């Protein structure tokens, strides 16, 4: 089913516009919340994914977070420089880089589940429980292939 046509499409009324604007708003607010931890919203995704054992290589993180490999490399460089993670080559396949949080990285990641929900809950405060569940359901449906 086509919901948009050239006759009814306007950029500011499109789903893509709303999703992008919502994402930008969340990133700005999460960045502000994490400023004292010296990490960004994008870096948060990396640290949490690693802390929760969802991803442990740059490729896995790129795929999970939808970040191209070049940007992922730069972000990992910054996190490594900050002493939050370390890289090592796989012993089985030298082409594979494994990532591990340092003690400092684990400490920062441990703060995130307490901090990020504050931002999300502020944005969701006007939603009923049913609306919240419906929003999540619809967003995940939108993300399906």
From TrEMBL:
Taxonomic superkingdom: Bacteria
Molecular function terms from GO: DNA binding; DNA-binding transcription factor activity
InterPro entries (alphabetical): HTH_MarR-typ, WH-like_DNA-bd_sf, WH_DNA-bd_sf
Keywords: DNA-binding, Transcription, Transcription regulation
SMART domains: HTH_MARR
Domain HTH marR-type, first and last residues per copy: 12-144
SUPFAM superfamilies: Winged helix' DNA-binding domain (SSF46785)
Name of this protein: DNA-binding MarR family transcriptional regulator
């Amino acid at each position: 089913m086509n919901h948009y046509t050239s006759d009814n499409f306007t950029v500011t009324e499109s789903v893509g516009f709303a999703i992008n604007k919502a994402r930008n708003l969340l990133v700005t607010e999460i960045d502000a919340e994490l400023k004292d931890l010296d990490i960004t919203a994008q870096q948060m995704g990396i640290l949490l994914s690693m802390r929760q054992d969802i991803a442990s290589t740059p490729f896995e993180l790129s795929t999970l977070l939808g970040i191209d490999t070049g940007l992922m490399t730069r972000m990992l460089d910054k996190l490594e420089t900050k002493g939050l993670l370390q890289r090592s080559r796989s012993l089985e396949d030298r082409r594979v880089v494994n990532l591990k949080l340092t003690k400092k990285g684990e400490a920062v990641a441990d703060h995130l589940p307490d901090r990020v929900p504050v931002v999300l809950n502020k944005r969701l405060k006007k939603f009923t429980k049913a609306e919240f569940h419906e929003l999540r359901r619809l967003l995940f449906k939108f993300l399906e292939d």
